[in-house]
Design goal:
mainly beta; Metal Binding Protein, Guanine Nucleotide Exchange Factor, Chain A; seven-stranded mixed beta sheet; 1 helix; 5% helix; globular
Length: 144
Amino acid sequence: MTKVKVSGSCHCGKIKINATLIEGKVIACHCTDCQISAGGPFRVIVQSNGEDFEITGGAAEYVKTSADSGNHRIQGFCGTCGSSLYACDLNKNLFNIRAGCLENGSEFSPKVHIFGGSSPFWLKEIGKSSWLEKGPGSKQMEFD
């Protein structure tokens, strides 16, 4: 089994994360809680066991009383820039790290999508939309 080590930070750089990931645990969560906190139709997470997760810079935390799953959990974020960094169980045994805060976060392709019943109807058609390489007026992208 290959151990993947990752590192990342919040947007302002105050908080740093280092972790070893659980192999194959790359998840796109479409629950309404993730949609609200991510500001989009889903959030991609990677998982790490608590003993393989290290954070420096003192993330602010708050307890989310109940996720869509009904589980209680802790949300970790930067108190300076507001970046959402992770969620974990109350005992901090399992961390769901926000892939977007990792240096190589775009390399992680979801292996499973969860809470698909909460996903917007248009998401399954997203490949049919126009995609631009950068902002408005930039080159149109083609997918093979």
